[in-house]
Specification:
heterodimer, A: alpha/beta, Rossmann fold, Alpha-Beta Plaits, 2 domains, four-stranded antiparallel beta sheet, globular, B: mainly alpha, 0% strand
């Protein structure tokens, strides 16, 4: 039996005569896979996801879920799909209870199931205390959490998420990550788009790289890990010369993975994590060890550079 | 497993009903119901209270009904604009459609539900207006004041309501902003179409029988006992009056054409 849950075949979406948002995109996602759809802004991620959720129609090609053409038979294809696309508006004049009840009914849940799931989902997205409050009084982050709650409300076996951590605070991002990991354990198929390498590497099994509307690569998460290394690199210049003993002391700091000498005062340090907070933490730790830092510069490289180099290697750019 | 056609239709009907109830809740929460129902009761009350205190009532029930019902047109336009103005366009402008249109429902069932959700409260508002007026007539002139013409006027008002809602719903399905759609709907019916109607009648001296607001004149014209001059297409040049059956036909045609066109256009519209 075909295990493929999500499949696109030669998907093309043109806007007008000149703009090709999605250009001959084909991929398969199997049951229980968590696949990242990675690309810089404007690469065509949201357009692909909108086609997969019947918000727009492709110019040519097909998008299937569970073997059913989404754009021809949306009712059947989207029955078991939870989706979060872009930054949706949430009906401000309603309460979370009312919004979730409506969508529960759309998914043909019984009133008992709806009541039970409202409790569970609002607890999951930390909105239990706001259950009966009008959404118009919510912050952007709260609205986002409610939209996430809506996407998982009917316990779908397929989740399609477009930039799921957008608009969330660090705590919300961590919770979202945990949520996706919990779906992984339940064998839920997750397809999530992001422009954040770090995010994708933490939750996905494999990654589809999209650039300029085209799929340029599909690879395992290990490859991203390699890429992430360049984001974890930072060049640090110290006030005084560092001895071999000093280097060993610094190397023993838990946040530093590797330290490489450029000259007696300048060193290239690889951090454990790639985010800015870890840079601050690392610098603080070094200073607390009694070393004076006179300058530091994180390695300048981004996803766009990676794609340009990748396309160059393939002879495409 | 594939569903039978019957099951499929049943499911679509369920989805439409869900949208209707969702829309009604929206109108209620946004205080549109209170405003419209308040006007439906308040306006006829003014025509009852003011003559009672400062003047006298018209001699006949028809006269009272004509005076009172000359404002039902305004009420239909206000209510229709409130309930239908943002029905479709709101989902696109507010981006709530990203949540709604990605659910397993035919988009057309959502739009039909939205149309009914706008039409039902407007019809209810008109009914309340007529009910209040009828009670006032009974209070002033006795039950004998309730005439067949009042009933005819009520039926015409209901048909005009469906065509007015269809026109505003049509604007909502083609325009990009809620405010533009609501205002264009409102001003089309209150000003633009009546101006075209007047230009045709008095400057070009052609009967504007195909214009929606011209047919709406029947709401009060039914109380006039003298037959209108030149009613219907091909009538005499001069002061025109809409023909009863022609007027009804024009309103029904507007309703059907605008409704199907709106659903067709809204269905093709995408969250881009």
């Amino acid at each position: 039996m075909d295990d493929c849950i999500i499949r696109t075949e030669n998907l093309v979406k043109k806007f007008g005569d000149n703009i090709i948002a999605v250009d001959d995109v084909s991929f398969d996602i199997d049951k229980g896979e968590v696949v990242g759809y990675l690309g810089p802004n404007g690469a065509g991620k949201t357009t692909t996801i909108k086609i997969l959720t019947n918000l727009i129609e492709p110019t040519s090609g097909t998008a299937c879920i569970n073997g059913i053409d989404v754009n021809k038979y949306p009712k059947e294809a989207l029955k078991d799909v939870g989706s979060l696309i872009g930054v949706p508006g949430v009906y401000g004049y309603l309460t979370p209870q009312e919004v979730l009840t409506y969508f529960g009914k759309v998914y043909r849940m019984s009133q008992r199931e709806i009541d039970q799931r409202i409790e569970e989902v609002l607890e999951m997205v930390n909105l239990s205390d706001w259950r009966h409050s009008k959404i118009e009084s919510f912050s952007t982050g709260m609205e986002r959490r409610l939209a996430i709650g809506k996407s998982i409300f009917h316990e779908p076996s397929i989740l399609i998420l477009d930039e799921p951590v957008l608009g969330l605070d660090p705590e919300g991002i961590r919770e979202m990550r945990e949520l996706i990991k919990s779906f992984q354990k339940k064998e839920v198929t997750v397809f999530l788009s992001s422009h954040l390498l770090d995010e994708v590497s933490k939750v996905c099994d494999s990654v589809i790289f999209l650039y300029d509307g085209k799929v340029v690569e599909r690879d395992s998460v290990e490859m991203i890990d390699q890429m992430m290394k360049q984001f974890r690199l930072i060049e640090v210049e110290f006030l005084n010369d560092l001895s071999e003993d000093d280097l060993r002391r610094l190397d023993e700091l838990s946040i530093i993975e590797d330290i490489e000498k450029i000259n007696r005062r300048k060193f290239r340090i690889t951090k454990e994590e790639g985010d800015p907070a870890s840079t601050a933490h690392m610098l603080r730790s070094v200073i607390e060890e009694g070393y004076d830092i006179i300058s530091y510069s994180p390695k300048k490289s981004d996803l766009e550079d990676f794609y340009v180099s990748l396309m160059g290697e393939r002879g495409g750019a | 497993m594939m569903k039978t056609v019957k099951e499929d239709i049943k499911e679509d009907l369920k989805n439409t009903c869900l949208t209707v109830s969702f829309e009604l809740k929206k109108h209620f929460r946004m205080k549109r119901m209170i405003i419209s129902f308040g006007l439906a009761i308040g306006l006829p009350l003014i025509f009852y209270i003011v003559p009672r205190i400062w003047a006298s009532f018209p001699d006949t029930a028809e006269g009272f009904a004509t005076l009172n019902l000359s404002f039902v047109n305004l009420l239909i336009i206000i209510s229709g604009s409130l309930f239908a103005g943002d029905a479709v366009v709101g989902e696109f402008e507010e981006k709530t459609g990203l949540l709604l249109f990605s659910t397993p429902q035919r988009h057309s069932t959502i739009f039909i539900g939205k149309y009914i959700g706008a039409l039902l409260p407007t019809l209810a508002v008109v009914s309340i207006y007529y009910l209040t007026t009828s009670l006032e007539i009974v209070g002033i002139y006795g039950t004998g004041g309730l005439s067949i013409e009042l009933f005819q006027s009520f039926i015409i008002s209901l048909v005009y309501t469906t065509s007015a809602v269809s026109l505003i719903f049509f604007f909502s399905s083609i325009l990009k902003r809620k405010i533009t759609s609501t205002l264009l709907g409102f001003f089309s019916l209150i000003m633009i179409l009546p101006i075209i109607e007047s230009v045709l009648q008095f400057l070009v001296e052609v009967e504007p029988w195909y214009i929606l607001t011209y047919s709406a004149g029947l709401i009060t014209d039914v109380f006039v006992s003298v037959p209108p001059i030149g009613g219907g297409p091909g009538g005499q040049v001069g002061q025109f009056s809409p023909d009863f059956y022609m007027g009804l036909t024009i309103m029904v045609l507007h309703t059907l054409v605008l409704f199907f066109l709106s659903v067709f256009i809204a269905n093709r519209r995408r969250m881009e």
